[in-house]
Write a structure and sequence with these properties.
This protein has twelve helices and ten strands. The chain is of the alpha/beta class.
Length: 302
């Protein structure tokens, strides 16, 4: 698979939706011309099951696990699943892997959460070892990476990186680390409102989990924010850097900042500023649950 430069993807949080709803969303994203759908593995659906289903319900759009939790399956199972999807849907699946968070690994799954870099390097080694027993074609592989060492590992061993919750200055830094040829598929939160109070309130609600998640808040400190920016739900400066809000022109400008900084693909995640019809979705409302179609229509490629 060759990823188009300066392409647009979408972020879809699947856990709160039924199969019929996910199929409808995927087909609508495809009809709008987006290049890829990225989805996380959290607390309801298993990653490669979601990937296979979304592929089966669409025709050409790329589907990317963003990210599949390495603690969820051994390296050979991951390789079998990804090679299987490449066989069944050639050139359409991207395997995104990550070590997730301690709360999702140790507290929920019961595994021992180990040092991220060492754990990922070992996992990639195990995938390489498994290839001698398997004969399928490998789809592209990217790592969920924020810090320098994980990005350097990704540059050495994979096709690129998938940062999350990262402002354009992180994209610039990532490009310097991974070099000119690797993919940087970075996510950008978007809240379509010109009301600063509503936008920042929605953004703070959306970011709550990440403000207590070490790998994320350390990443913000690494690119120039301070501990003062982490207080009281995040400073306006940090919140505005993480969540693009305002007019169409202002939001498009933020996306362009990522491209100017070296992003290969910008993945749009919409955050609502008002209640909507998805508040009673099957899993209970989550800020990442509901595609804001007005935003996706506005920002569609072309």
């Amino acid at each position: 698979m060759k990823m188009k430069e300066k392409s647009l993807g979408v972020f879809l949080y699947p856990d709160n939706f039924s199969a019929a709803e996910l199929a409808e969303f995927a087909q609508r994203f495809e009809s709008l011309g987006y290049d890829a759908i990225w989805y996380p593995e959290a607390m309801v659906y298993e990653s490669f099951t979601v990937g296979a289903y979304l592929l089966s319900q669409t025709q050409s759009i790329a589907i990317a696990s963003g990210i599949a939790n390495t603690y969820g399956r051994d390296a050979m199972a991951t390789l079998q699943a990804s090679q299987g999807l490449e066989e069944f849907y050639p050139g359409r699946f991207i395997t995104g892997l990550g070590v997730s968070h301690k709360s999702l690994v140790q507290d929920m799954r019961g595994h021992v959460y180990r040092k991220p870099l060492e754990t990922m390097r070992t996992y990639l080694d195990q995938m390489d070892d498994a290839r001698q027993y398997l004969h399928g074609k490998n789809p592209p592989l990217v790592l969920g990476a924020l810090g320098p060492k994980m990005m350097e590992l990704a540059a050495e061993r994979t096709d690129g990186v998938h940062p999350f919750n990262s402002p354009p200055e992180h994209t610039h830094w990532a490009r310097e680390l991974v070099g000119p040829d690797k993919w940087i598929c970075t996510a950008q939160h978007v809240c379509l409102t010109t009301d600063a109070e509503k936008a920042r309130a929605a953004a703070r609600k959306a970011m709550e989990f990440y403000f207590v998640t070490p790998n994320h808040y350390r990443n913000w400190l690494r690119v120039g924010y301070t501990t003062a920016d982490l207080e009281n739900g995040g400073s306006d400066r940090l919140i505005d850097a993480l969540v693009a809000w305002g007019t169409e022109e202002q939001i498009r400008d933020r996306i362009q900042q990522h491209f100017d900084a070296g992003a290969t693909q910008v993945i749009i995640n919409t955050i609502k500023s008002e209640n909507n019809s998805y508040d009673n979705a099957i899993g209970g409302y989550n800020f990442q649950s509901a595609p804001q179609w007005e935003t996706f229509e506005m920002l569609k490629p072309g």
